[in-house]
Amino acid sequence: MELRKVVVYHVVMSLKAPFETSFGKTVDRHGVIVEVEDVSGEVGWGEAPVDEGPWYSYETVGTTLYVYKEFLIPKLLMLGSLNSPEEFLEAVEGVRGYRMAKAGVEMALWDLKARLEGLPLYRVVGGVRNYITSGVSIGVIGDEAALIKAVSKFLDEGYRRVKIKIKPGWDVRPVKLIRKEFGDIPLQVDANAAYSLDHVNIFKDLDMHGLLMVEQPLSYEDLIEHSELQSQLTTPICLDESIKNLHDAKVAVRLGSCRVVNIKPARVGGLHETRLIHDYLMNAGVPIWIGGMLETGIGRGHLVAAATLPNVRYPSDIGGSSRYWEEDVVEPPWIVRRDGTISVPEKVGIGVEVVRERLDKYTKTKLEYT
Ligand code: OSB
Ligand code: MG
Fold it and tell me: Is the model's pLDDT at 80 over the cut of 90?
């Protein structure tokens, strides 16, 4: 690969319905799209699913555009030609953190590499299946009738499991409600770090409801208290925010902080780190699944490729385009079939094409680097 241009798009897209978590409510979803262009004219696409503010992560649209301009893109363009996305990661090793920003570029390079090789991305990263299974992540819906309606709709559409967001004051009640209404469906909850060990009784109560897992109950920086909590629960704890890299995964396994990991390629710095964590956890006997960040069809392509890895043993938070958008920025849109699976494209790269007029329509700022 020899790059001649990098284009960065700050996009804003309205979600079909607001998405509420313990850290806030998203109506308009911000993000940063990265396009890398090879001297041959071929392009690759990536996405840094950063928010407007530092809620899920400290990284924001503002910090991402800044580290791109000042550090990451100059270092990328200085490389001249590169054989693999890993060479970019080595070149920016001196930049601490900013994993989502790095991931946006790194994944664009994976897409480009796959396209130049004429291969689908999932094969390039070592995927082993031609379909993935989808779960749905439902935000906090405080109105009980509306929550039931939403769960019912997604189950009808085929989603293989339901995850609901919880927060203090809204946890055991919605779980009981869903169990009463839908029986023994595959169900899990995600607290997005909203609780402390003072809430242990809430988790003991949740433990009675046969949940598949409880995602990120405690602090986004914690591993030790999760291990204390896990030792008191039958339900597996799944870590999301607390696992930012391979090292965190190793510590979590040694401490017994969780029994499942949600890997978000963007959170851990891209597909290279995703594979390192994946391989380590597979050896350690800890199953994973792929989490999402309300990505556009571009980031979704990378999620789908990651979900074809062998140790992905639960449904992933990868909905179809229509779960999020009236109109996605790619064609064809991502589709969850009636059996709750998404077919993994055999076309090159992420397997979908960006519709430039649509991308432009949602772009607030476009920056070109040569
Ligand atoms: O914690 O998994 C999370 C969305 C934004 C930020 C954090 C999370 C989520 C989701 C949505 O749960 C998953 C999806 O993309 O559908
Ligand atoms: Mg989560």
Answer: no
